Recover the amino acids of this structure.
């Protein structure tokens, strides 16, 4: 028997002492069509036949909460601006870029941390699936109550020292440290980028003092995988093991353009698993999918019932 699973969603809020930006008015969800009745029926059949579902989610499930992504056609960061994320080697080796990164992130964090889960996050939290891996660093699945979850690229709400590995400092505590170091520094921006920062000019940096590790005075960073960095190999091995125990794969809101997520599609192909993709526009994994529906996740998931 199939029934809709529901449970209470715990509330988890982040706050910050820095000034919160006005939420952007731009619509970060690209143009899309509503799912047809046939789409819904086919997706329901896929889910009904899945007993140990492995879910891969990406930025497309969070655009509905107001967080922009990188690659969406017409509305992603790459389409709207010439801004590009900072590469990891820049962050590590260029003191000016390190300073720029933390100034942008400090200004952007109050807005980024205030975003709340949308219906898609809450539905995934309510589904009792085998395992869920997300590429997102926004904590929205955790805020929604997801437990069987791995954050492939880390989480912006945590910080880590690059030099000594210190992890006891929270992102909120770091905001307070930066504020104390820069009591008279301020900057404004009306943008928010996918990974919590904003765009600032060289002039806006001024005498901003970037944070350092309270234990070793080394460089600290959000506990996320930067562009040009590698995902933790132990995590990848764990996820491959979880995938091998699964019987089907669902991709939701991801273009699968980065290898860190696409590798699981290749592995699922080798294991001859059925794959379904729900995403607006093409993805790198379309060729491997038995079912591909180009629509917004929030339009189709509410119609689907999950196996009890």
């Amino acid at each position: 028997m199939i029934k809709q699973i529901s449970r209470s969603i715990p509330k988890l809020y982040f706050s910050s002492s820095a000034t919160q930006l006005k939420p952007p008015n731009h619509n970060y969800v690209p143009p899309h069509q509503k799912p047809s009745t046939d789409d819904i029926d086919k997706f329901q059949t896929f889910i009904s036949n899945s007993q140990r579902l492995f879910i891969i989610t990406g930025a497309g499930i969070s655009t509905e909460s107001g967080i922009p992504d990188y690659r969406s056609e017409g509305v992603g960061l790459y389409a709207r601006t010439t801004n590009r994320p900072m590469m990891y080697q820049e962050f590590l080796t260029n003191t000016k870029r390190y300073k720029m990164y933390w100034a942008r992130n400090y200004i952007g964090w109050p807005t980024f941390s205030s975003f709340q889960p949308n219906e898609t996050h809450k539905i995934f939290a309510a589904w009792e699936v085998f395992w869920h891996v997300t590429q997102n660093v926004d904590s929205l699945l955790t805020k929604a109550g997801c437990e069987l979850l791995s954050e492939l690229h880390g989480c912006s709400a945590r910080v880590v020292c690059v030099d000594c590995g210190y992890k006891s400092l929270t992102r909120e505590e770091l905001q307070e440290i930066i504020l104390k170091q820069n009591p008279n520094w301020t900057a404004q921006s009306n943008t928010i980028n996918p990974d919590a920062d904003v765009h600032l000019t060289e002039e806006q940096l001024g005498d901003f003092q970037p944070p350092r590790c309270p234990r070793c005075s080394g460089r600290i960073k959000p506990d996320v995988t930067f562009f040009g960095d590698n995902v933790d190999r132990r995590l990848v091995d764990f996820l491959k093991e979880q995938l091998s125990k699964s019987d089907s794969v669902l991709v939701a809101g991801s273009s699968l353009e980065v290898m860190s997520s696409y590798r699981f599609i290749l592995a699922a192909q080798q294991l001859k698993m059925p794959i379904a993709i729900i995403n607006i526009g093409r993805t790198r994994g379309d060729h491997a999918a038995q079912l591909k529906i180009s629509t917004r996740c929030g339009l189709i998931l509410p119609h689907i019932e999950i196996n009890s």
Notes: The chain has one domain: 30-298. The longest strand covers residues 154-161. The radius of gyration is 20 Å. Confidence is low (pLDDT under 50) at residues 1-26.
